[in-house]
Amino acid sequence: MSERDFTQPEIDGVQLHAVLFALSDPTRLAIARALADGEEHSAGDLAGDVPKSTMSHHLKILREAGITSTRPEGMRCRVSLRRTELNRRFPGLLAAILKNAE
Amino acid sequence: MSERDFTQPEIDGVQLHAVLFALSDPTRLAIARALADGEEHSAGDLAGDVPKSTMSHHLKILREAGITSTRPEGMRCRVSLRRTELNRRFPGLLAAILKNAE
DNA sequence: GGTTATGTTCTATGTTTCTAGAACACAGCA
DNA sequence: TGCTGTGTTCTAGAAACATAGAACATAACC
Fold it and tell me: Which positions of chain B have pLDDT values less than 50?
C-alpha cells in the first residue's frame, strides 16, 4: 500500500450542520479564510503557531465536513476549499460565512 | 424581584462562531427554521417530543448566541428570531443558512 | 542506508456539550 | 389558598471535542 488516505465525502452527502459545526471553531474558520484566496496551501503554511497534531486534527474535521480537499504532493499536502462544489450543494452559504468572517 | 431573566447580547457583540455553533445542532436548526415564519412561538409550541429541560437548554444557547429573542408573556414565553438585527450584523448569513436548511 | 522535512496516527488529559429527571419559580384561576 | 400549566435551574452521567506530546509513516535528497 501507499498513498496517504485523504478521503472526503461526496458533495451530495455533505450535511449542513456538519459544515456549520466545522466552521464554528475559530481556528478552523481562520483556516477556511486563508483558503479563500482560491490557492492550495500546505498544512504547515496554514499552521501558524498551532502544533501540527492539532492542525492535522482540524484539517481532518474540515475535510470530513466536505469543506476542504486535501491532495498529497511529495512530502507535503495541498489543502484547498471545495468552493464550487459547496456552492452547488448550499448556494450562497460559504460566501456568506466567509464574507462575514472578515 | 420578579420578571424572568432572558438576557440576550447586544447585536454588535454577537460573534460569528457562536452563531454557527448554535445552528450546528440539528435540534436548534429545526427551532430556527420553525421561527423563520416570523411569528412568535412558545417553547412548548416548538418542543415536539423534546423534554422541556432539554428545550430550555437549546433555547438558551440560541438566545445567548444572539439568534433569538425571548419575551415572557403570562405563564409562557414568546420566542422569535432576531432576523433584522442579525441581517444587519451579518448580511445574508441567516438567510443563506435557513434557505439551505430546507 | 542515513538524514531531514512534513504530516498523520496514537494516546492521554481536561473541557465542553447533550440529555433528561427532579426540584423550583411564576402566572392564572377556581 | 390550593391547583394547574409553563418553563427555568439544578444535578449528574455519557458522549463528543480540543489540545498536544510521542511515535510512526512517507518523501526527497545526500
Answer: 1-2
